[in-house]
Design brief:
545 residues, alpha/beta, two-stranded antiparallel sheet, 18 helices, 36% helix, disordered C terminus
Length: 545
């Protein structure tokens, strides 16, 4: 099961603010009196974090946290969490710790020990100045105690090479795909079935509370992206009195994730979320903007939006009949969806690859990001790690034979990207375990302080409607709209969003209701001198960062 993510790992970012304060309490720091209604006190002690430079000369510190495998049995087996920190750059004005969960790549809870350093410069400057920024590889992932169903990377690579790229096309490839994921499930069940049952979002939320306690903060400041939003919402409802500040960027609808607390899933997680529809809308916008500019800015442009859409349709039909080297129709559509995540330089690079294919050339692989200064800059993040979290936590149809009909229905409503998003969850059909501890609601427990929800209009993975749903479901939340493109506002920069996030994390100031931000730099354009802010509650002026 391939679930795309944004930056990092082995693949694949002064304004005058008129704002309102959502509640009367200012955020002076972590020592804010907690509200009532928390879960019972921790049975496990807070882990001890012995920070040392990740590698000699690195500005990042690393530590290992030992936590219970099963939080209901704190004296039983323990597992390790790899943790990373960048200290506040203005220690005299330090507020506390900001915990960061980056979402992917490859699905739920990617390796924070890689993605936080790679994305560190994308955090607002004042946040970097005033907070230690801490991330971690969630249980089951990366350099923490990880789900690994293969004896070596070579064995894992051989498994991946034995199934269709992107998604299956035709009866033969569907059979190969289903057989490959049945084999993966069998391998995982044989290796460490106990671990598979204890990598849920709830388990990770409890880990996060132990880490909060370990750094000495009485309440949590948190930024979660993509899957990190459902993690944040779970924490907020397990520990509502511990929420100091929580920003959720590119959201998953909690009801879609849990299938309304029902195990009888007729649709996949991603189809319930509407990932197919939002990917289709984002792709259409990509093609329209590409066709509205010159080939010097978008290599795939055919001179007009409609001509560019038609060109894309003809390219896909050609690839169905005659792949270009290893670039099949399925692989290309997977690359298109992933290529829409990061606008700069992702959209320009994607247009170049499509033009290569149009001209019959196999595109060159995208360059890898620079490795961060950490001990393990390329940890193993095989598909089984995302599968263990998604399939154990979120219900999906259990009959592999159902997925072809689901694919065809998704293609009717969303075109070719619907096929991709349907098969992205098929590995769950035969996954061997269900999480022992799953939080399925309610989602409206009153938090000590309000939550900031950020949603992007043209997001190829998490629809804007999911951000609206998250803001409705939480008891005390404010929605900030990013009228832009790509997956997460952190890596698709808007100086407007950054200003609002800075004010929120520093002193609790939320944007006025209805506030809308725009990207600092639109797709296929030269940088603009300034980015503006449009609000529903009053005019705000933006200036160049």
């Amino acid at each position: 099961m391939h679930i795309p993510g944004h930056v990092a790992g082995r693949r694949h970012h002064a304004a005058a603010l008129a704002a309102t304060l959502f509640c009367s309490t200012l955020f002076i720091g972590p020592d804010i009196a907690p509200a009532g209604g928390d879960t019972p006190p921790r049975a496990a002690p807070a882990p001890k974090l012995d920070w040392t430079p990740c590698v000699p000369g690195s500005p990042f510190d690393c530590a290992t946290a030992n936590v219970p495998l099963d939080h209901a049995n704190p004296r039983g087996r323990t597992i390790e969490l790899a943790v990373i920190r960048r200290k506040a750059t203005d220690p005299g004005r330090r507020i506390g710790t900001l915990f960061f969960n980056p979402g992917g790549p490859g699905g739920p809870g990617g390796p924070g020990t890689v993605q936080m350093p790679q994305n560190y410069e994308s955090f607002p400057q004042e946040v970097r100045e005033r907070f230690d920024i801490v991330s971690w590889d969630p249980r089951g992932i990366g350099s923490s105690t990880a789900v690994n169903c293969f004896g070596s990377r070579e064995e894992a690579d051989a498994w991946a090479a034995g199934k269709p790229a992107g998604f299956p096309v035709g009866a033969r490839e569907r059979a190969e795909w289903i057989a490959a994921y049945k084999d993966l499930s069998r391998r995982c069940q044989q290796r460490d079935p106990e671990l598979l049952r204890h990598v849920s979002t709830t388990d990770t939320a409890r880990d996060l509370d132990l880490l909060r306690h370990a750094v000495g903060d009485r309440q949590l400041s948190y930024l979660g992206m993509s899957y990190g939003t459902i993690l944040g919402a779970t924490y907020a409802n397990l520990f509502p009195g511990k929420v100091r500040a929580m920003a959720l960027d590119s959201n998953i609808d909690p009801r879609a994730w849990t299938n309304d607390a029902s195990d009888d899933a007729r649709l996949t997680t991603f189809l319930r979320m509407g990932s197919d529809r939002t990917a289709a809308a984002t792709l259409d916008r990509f093609l329209g903007l590409c066709g509205s500019t010159t080939v010097s800015r978008c290599a795939f442009s055919a001179g007009s939006p409609q001509a560019t859409r038609d060109k894309f349709g003809r390219l896909l039909q050609r690839l169905r009949e005659r792949p270009v080297g290893p670039w099949t129709y399925g692989r290309t559509m997977g690359d298109v969806v992933n290529g829409l995540y990061v606008v700069h330089p992702g959209w320009t690079d994607l247009a170049g690859r499509l033009q290569d294919l149009w001209q019959g050339r196999a595109p060159e692989p995208a360059p890898l990001p620079s490795p961060p200064p950490v001990p393990h800059p390329d940890p193993y993040v095989g598909e089984e790690q995302a599968s263990a979290v998604l399939c154990g936590d979120s219900p999906n149809p259990r009959d592999p034979g159902d997925y072809h009909a689901l694919e065809e229905a998704a293609a009717v409503r969303a075109g070719d990207v619907g096929r991709f998003w349907t098969w992205a969850a098929e590995g769950c059909a035969t996954w061997p375990t269900v999480a022992a501890d799953r939080y399925t609601g309610p989602w409206n427990r009153p938090t000590a302080h309000p939550v900031l929800v950020v949603g992007t209009i043209y997001d190829p993975s998490t629809p804007y409607a999911n951000a609206q749903a998250m803001a409705r479901e939480l008891a005390n939340a404010r929605l900030l709209t990013h009228d832009g493109y790509g997956h997460t506002a952190l890596v698709n920069r808007s100086s407007c969003v950054q200003e609002h996030e800075s004010r929120y994390f520093v002193d609790g100031t939320l944007p006025p209701p209805g506030t809308t931000c725009r990207p600092t730099t639109p797709p296929f354009s030269t940088p603009r001198p300034s980015g503006g802010i449009a609000t529903g509650g009053g005019g705000l002026a933006g200036v160049a960062p």
